[in-house]
Every structure is written in structure tokens, then in C-alpha cells.
Amino acid sequence: MDDLPFKEGQFDLIWAEGSIFIIGFEQGLSYWKRFLKKGGYIALTEAAWFTDTPSEEARAFWQECYPAIKAVAELEAAVIRAGFQVIGRFALPASAWWDDYYRPLERKLDALEVRKKDDADAMSLIEMTRTEMAIHRDHHEEYGYVFFVGYYP
Length: 153
Known about the structure:
Strands 1, 2, 3, 4 and 5 form a five-stranded mixed beta sheet that branches. The protein contains five helices and five strands, in the order βαβαβαβααβ. Helix 4 runs antiparallel to helix 5 (120-139). By secondary structure, it is an alpha/beta fold.
């Protein structure tokens, strides 16, 4: 993601859901912009705080797994600093988390737990994932993913 084999100005659109965190939000915006044609678009999601006062439980979880999480306004400012015009943004709905991700994942975890009950590493990962799900269930109004669409003039 930080060493792409493409020519500068090659794309009309770069779409990245749930992945820019790998190289960092601001770094990704800056780096990926070079691959866009003038008049191109970037569409991406990033984890964001929806509140200025998240609960201690949610804050502790994100501090451990992704300390770079920022408020929506901070992310939008970063998009603008990178040279894009924000033409739209929205928070992914709760159904995207529960219906499309966590519920199917929970069924897979149940089956995996039976198969891997003697594998300490697998069980640790399963427990961590269940903790993530519980925190999201209890604190989903405090954070989530925001989808940004930016235009590169």
C-alpha cells in the first residue's frame, strides 16, 4: 500500500475501505493522491470518534488497537490539507457493522472455537474479537467508520 507499482496520474478513482490505516490516514492521502488524475476522486473509510468524550472502555480499546483514531472533523481537515475537496461523507450505519460483519463473524467464531479449543493463540484471537464486538455493541454511538469522498481539483 505504500509502494504501489502504478504511474502517477493513472487513475480516475481510488477506493479504499477499511485499509488506509495500514499506512496512516494522512500519509495514505498524500501518497495515493499522486496516482490520481486531476479531476479524480478518492473514496475511503476510516475509523472515527463520533464524540469528544468517549467512554473509558471505548477509549482504552481504541488506544490499544488503533491509537491514531481521530474525530470526524479532524479527519475531514486532513482530507482538505491533502489537497482534496470533500464532496461527501457519512457514518456507516449500525447495520453495516452488525448485519454485514459482526453477526456473520460471530457464527464463524462459534465454529472456530470448537475446532481450535486447544490452540491458545487462536482462542486469544477469538476472545479479543468477542471483546471488540461487545465494546461496539455497548458503545457504537461513540465511534465507527466514516466514508469520505474527495475530489482532486
